[in-house]
Sequence to fold (427 residues):
Amino acid sequence: MQELDKIREKANYCLNCKVKPCSHKGCPLKNKIPEFIKHIKEEDYIEAYKILCETTVLPGVCGRICPHQKQCQGSCIRGIKGNPVSIGKLEAFVFDQAEERGYHLVNCWENEMKENKLKNRNKKVAIVGGGPSGLTAAAFLAKNGVKVTIYERYDYLGGLLMYGIPEFRLSKKVVENTIEQILELGIEVKYHQRLGENLDLKQLEKEYDAIFLGFGANISIKMGVEGEDLTGVYGGNELLEYNKHPSYKEKTVAIVGGGNVAIDCARTIKRLGAKEVKVIYRRAKEQMPAEDKEIKQAIEEGITFLFQNNIIKILGKDKVEELELIKTKLVKKEGETRLVPINIENSNYKIKVDYVVMALGARPADDIEKLGINLTKWGNIEINENYQTSNKKIYAGGDLAGIRGTVAWASYSGREAAKKIIENIKD
Fold:
């Protein structure tokens, strides 16, 4: 009962303002935030869930892991002179309440699905990749009567939701419940399907009216500095994905980067017994892409942050032994939207480390070039305003297409791509 009182207090804090910047400016998915919160105030949690499901199929996930301070809560009117409304906690609460009552996505959409059943019943779409963008595209296509098949390379769905985000940030049970609700829409899944191995894009083109590629980009980007090939240098994305860590006992680990992957790696490695974990970021704390609460929790857990430091070299004979760092200053450059870090001459110094983890971002795997689809100069799949690739029958979204790297943005791209697919496959 005490928990419900806290939730009501958080809901009642919302002003239900006319402008709604939390929705229109802050939320990539344009969730109807004041509207669903209004129903929490009235203790009508099912109606709140219905409103959320008009725009999203991942409320239980996004409510927990979105960078709320940089998205919805960062645009909240309440936050101008005080604390913003706890939108993320309220969103997660609504999902949990609906789940407890056995009220699922299919219940929210059943009337629309009945109406759409005959409309697109002969249309088939293949989804390659079962991460946030693929799952969302699949759900909104199924809602519109399209027969959907997801082709997934692993034996589970969820992508980075399952392997890229630690359990202490996102419960696997929440992800499983979310996926279960999506599959209840009548979506077929084929596991252990890998493009270029046992899955052929040309064959899918023959069998389906459209294809959506949403298998993500999870190859860690390197810095291009001396010593990156030494034993003991790891990619953060791969460490989280495969969960194959070296022994960190009595070791010092340097994490390079400032996003959520960097913080997730740091907190995971600290939990796995590292003596010391240092996060090295070349800009200031205020510029870190990771959310403030994640940084705060990392500091509370004993993780050290070296802001405005850049790596010059990774030193060692056969394995990592030291890092050579240089301090940076931030300057404003013409054409740049944020301050740019510049190395400060003669500020070099060295620190002893045992492992280095690169968490600077990710790119698609090299074999993406074999798909016969145009790529951008960054190696992502090139798409137009309709999410179509150079092959107009093939669409793409999420990290693979260079969409901004949050779950909400990936989900948004899947939803919007589904709308365009439905428009283009009509008889």
User: Anything to note?
Assistant: The chain has a mean pLDDT of 94. The longest strand covers residues 322-331. The chain has 15 helices and 16 strands.
